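We store sequence, tokenised fold; for instance:
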Amino acid sequence: MMPRFILSMLLLIIAGFQSRAQIEKLKTGKEFLTPEGIKLILQKQGKGKLLNKGDKGRLHYRGYLVDDREFDNSRERNQPFEFILGMKQVIEGWYIALQYFIPGDVARITIPPNLCYGDVDMPKIPAGSYFVFDIEILEAIRDFAPKPETPGH
């Protein structure tokens, strides 16, 4: 049986390789399509580690439809959007796409309707719409999500 320390180190090394491989898929100026059908175009490469479930992220974004009708813009409000990844604070398409990025990245994300609002009409957004987001990842705070309390503590 492998000592717990060695097993933990192996898992960290494997996770590191997966992270580097995922970043390598995104090349500046090249289109990348995720298995879920989200189109990612990295416009500027940042530095750091990939965003993970439980991390608090801060980003600026401009959200618009494929015909360029804008429906939201954090820069116009001069207020970055903050979220905890994996806590259902963002649409499913963002949850998937943001895991490909690191702080400092600037990118365009195009999300299909099934990962946005689907067939539901929303103010300024017709049913069946693809969403386009121009994003800039400002910051990631690791393991920010609250941890469940252990019984007896």
